[in-house]
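Give me structure tokens for this 127-residue protein.
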Amino acid sequence: MSRILDQRILLLVISFSATVQSTKVLSKWKKCGDPECEKAMSRVQATTDYLGPDCRYLNFKTGEEIIVYSKLSRENENLWIGSKGKDFGYFSRDAVKVEEVLIGEEVEVLTKETDFLCLHEDKYNFE
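Here you go.
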């Protein structure tokens, strides 16, 4: 009986730590193609397979095309935000190469709390 209780406690701790990680603000600032971050900034191609650490990240395989909509700036410049088909999320800029720049100038704006929520089946997952 105590073994089952130990396993449940471990699962609870793992679940809590995953929740904290998936709502963590990754940066206070981001760069976009316009003040609303609606314009695509660039088209990139994956140079390696990428598997993100949680549900906020975009997973992809080498050779796939991704459209970039914003880039985190200042305290976390390595993460870009983009889409591949219906999938949307963060990824390391080191995992892609720029194929085409679609904007003339980047605009730096404050991030929002909703920038760091998981999106599942077209619904935000508020954890």
